[in-house]
Design goal:
The chain is α+β, with helices and mostly antiparallel strands and about 140 residues long. It is built from 4 helices and 6 strands, in the order E-E-E-H-H-E-E-H-H-E. Helix 2 packs across helix 3.
Length: about 140
């Protein structure tokens, strides 16, 4: 499987602007700029997209891990926070809230650890990946 996205940028780094389009067109000429990346401007930015990718990948991997162990989650909600410092992504923190009928705390922690270590986006990153996980 291969997926692609396209970025177009016009102008200088600070005053210019660009747009992103994904293969699925879920993002279709979605704007990004210096302000959307480093301030509170309208549009997306690479770090936000990296956070979305990690949250989505981890959550789906956790669902598969749980299914393999005989559990089905009622709901898994993951927020991912990416830290950009000194020109590098230095951390990705996953914050999970889960509703999983019948699972023990030990089974839950093992499934979360497996998903964190083995989702494809975690494997891609060369950064510190941390998590918190709570059952509701």
């Amino acid at each position: 499987m291969k997926r692609h996205a396209t970025a177009v940028w016009n102008g200088s780094g600070k005053e210019g602007n660009g747009h992103l389009t994904t293969q699925s067109t879920t993002l279709n000429q979605t704007q990004f700029s210096f302000n959307s990346r480093f301030a509170d401007g309208v549009g997306t930015n690479p770090e936000e997209l990296v956070a979305a990718a990690h949250a989505g990948c981890f959550t789906m991997k956790l669902s598969f891990v749980l299914n393999a162990a005989g559990f089905t989650a009622d709901e898994l909600t993951t927020q991912c926070t990416i830290t950009l410092a000194d020109g590098a992504i230095t951390a990705s923190h996953l914050e999970l809230s889960a509703k999983i009928p019948g699972i023990s705390a030990e089974q839950f922690e093992a499934a979360v650890a497996d998903a964190k270590a083995n989702c494809p986006i975690s494997k891609l990153y060369n950064t510190n990946i941390t998590h918190t996980a709570v059952m509701q």
